[in-house]
Amino acid sequence: MISALFLAILSGTAFGFVPSGLTIERSRLSPLEATVVTNGAVESKTTPPPSSSGVSFTTVAAAPKVAQRWRKSTKQVATLGPASSTFEMIEKLFLAGADMFRLNFSHGSQEQKKELLILIRQVEQKYSHPIAILGDLQGPKLRVGEFSNPNGEVLEKGQLFRLDLDSSKGDKNRVQLPHPEIISASEVGHTLLVDDGKVKLVVSGKGEGHLNCTVEVAGRIKDRKGVNTPDSVLEISPLTPKDRSDLKYQIEIGVDWIALSFVQTPADIDEINDLIDEMLPENQYRPALMAKIEKPSCFYDDNLQQIVAKCDGIMVARGDLGVECPPEDVPLLQKTIINECRNQGKPVVVATQMLESMIENPTPTRAEASDVSTAIYDGADAIMLSAESAAGKYPEESVTMQQRIINRVESDPHYRTILHTSDFFPNKTPADAIITAARQIAKTVEAKSIVCFSLRGTTVLRASKTRPSVPILALCPFKETARQLALAWGVYPDLPQAGSYGYSVTEENMFDYEEPMVEAASDDFDLVLRNACRAALKKGLVSDPDDLLVVTAGLPFGTPGAANIIRIVPAAGPTCWDGVCRVE
Questions:
Q1: What span, in angstroms and rounded, lies between the C-alpha atoms of 371 and 365?
Q2: Which pLDDT tens digit goes with each residue over 386-405?
Q3: Which of 137, 149, 162, 483 has the maximum number of C-beta atoms within 10 A of its C-beta?
Q4: Whole-number Å distance between alpha carbons of 131 and 161
């Protein structure tokens, strides 16, 4: 009897987890829209209404084959590009594990990025699951000028070489450096790295509009090669005119996250935050801001703490960071960044060269697999693919390999031990007290999930910070909040159609993604809890009517950051307990 009642209560979207073909009794139910996942495709089937006798029979859908999709805690970011620009490929990457898609504005036109965004939203709608979209700004590109020799020049170790503002073509002794801010900021003894460090110059003297350098690492310099300045903080904005145009466009098309390159100091975060506030139309949801840590100056004094505090998330951009910092320092800096983000409760993404060899090969090197594992053991919220998924031969296989590594690491008993050696003390607030208690309760009663009702995601991020042993199901009234939370560790957001948390939602249309409505609060807390149970079943987080959920919420509803209620609810619904259900 309890199993039948469990399915009757929860099947507002009819994601059943009993064996296919089982017949159950249903009574006094409205027609149901059943969703069946078959080989990655979603089909909708409507069951007829009950017969006049008040009793009907139905076959419950089999377990979704994508159920494992919701079991991992570490999230995956996949960059889109020529190899992944179709609906079919984006869908494959989503089913393989991608939680966020990155649009790299360094390449391609703005219109191409909008086309990709539309395709992502179509996949999101098909699977009724929020997908985050990251718009990555290019940032300033510091480059030398051109040489008379089209093949460039080979510099010898120990020779002198001048960088100046003269626009004439260069030779073996000099070349233009069209960036007066570099000349101004450089001092004798500072290092300049050309072409990702292939050539290393040390400033031996400076004058008006030029730098005299000694070649410390020999090599060939060609036209327009990049210049890195690891020892200098440049008086330059992180936002070029192109970036400002791209930023405005990203806000217009509705990306969920914006990534800022070339962050040197906390003032850079203030600059883009002010610009976003200026560009954001009235009543439009504000995109979350991610700072890319790629400059040594981010670690001066308390810069890192301030940068993390001023933005919504962090990317460990190991490409430029590995050029400007000694390679042996990068693993330590990665751990430092991750720990600071965990301490402040901000999502952190580890990026660059994660599975680089899979651009050309169907399997990674053992060293790459170990590198990905290290980021997961360090406690990163997400790991990212760049060229592997954007331009490689094996985009789907790359994402699948990441998920395989995630699943393997997270099944290792040492993972939990390592993760909780870095536990951070909660803030002295009611919300943190509730979340800390929910984590302990979930562990004690062996709950299947912690369910957080959240308006803007604050409570959910607090729950993610504690790294609980069970998934966090986030129920939000706004699709924008749900999409932003898709990046957070262990969080799987869902989206009721109506009511701040679905208080007056009807069963047949509770998961309408594009038209959520916020209504006045209701006293029907039981209905809110029933929606939590339905969402847990939909994600495959529960499979038995006696499975337990630990629910946190805040009263009055609609108060951002409020969390003052904990409730243990069986998957059969809030009116049931220990196999007995109240029937009104």
A1: 10
A2: 999 999 999 999 999 999 99
A3: 483
A4: 50
